[in-house]
Amino acid sequence: MVDPSIPIETEEMPESRHAATDPQKCRDMAEKYDWTLLRVEKTGDRILKVNCVFAGETEFPNYTPED
Predict the structure, then answer these.
(1) Per-residue pLDDT at 10
(2) I want to staple 35 with a disulfide (CB 3.0 to 4.6 A). Which of 48, 54, 59, 63 is the partner?
(3) Hey, is 55 helix, strand or coil?
(4) Is 38 left (phi over 0), alpha (psi -120 to 50) or beta?
(5) How many angstroms separate the CA atoms of 33 and 24, rounded?
(6) 3-class secondary structure, 20
(7) Of 56 and 4, which is predicted with more confidence?
(8) pLDDT value at position 5?
(9) Which of 29, 9, 13 lies closest to 21 in space, CA to CA?
(10) What is the longest distance spanned by two Cα atoms in the chain?
(11) Which residues does 9 contact at the CB level (< 8 Å), separation at least 6?
């Protein structure tokens, strides 16, 4: 029986992924940009070893001036 007090995900929540060299970099990104880190996934790549999975749509700020 399903417990009605536990929400069931009926719609997929939006997530964003950004690759990093290690899990600490994911935590650093979350803190720096005020993003919610959901989990860290291994990639199997030897340089970018993890994917940082964040809640919602995330983009890095554009620090270059526009002409």
Answers:
(1) 44
(2) 54
(3) strand
(4) alpha
(5) 14
(6) strand
(7) 56
(8) 54
(9) 29
(10) 60
(11) none
pLDDT tens-digit readout, 9-48: 446 789 999 999 999 999 999 999 999 999 999 999 999 9
Q: Would you list the DSSP string of 25-46?
A: HHHHHHHHHT--EEEEEE---S
Strand order in the sheet with 15-20: 15-20, 50-55, 37-42
- Report how far residue 38's alpha carbon sits from residue 56's, in angstroms, rounded to the nearest whole number: 10
Residue 51 pairs with which residues in a beta bridge? 19, 41
Q: Which residues pair with 50 in a beta bridge?
A: 20, 42
* pTM of the shown model: 0.74
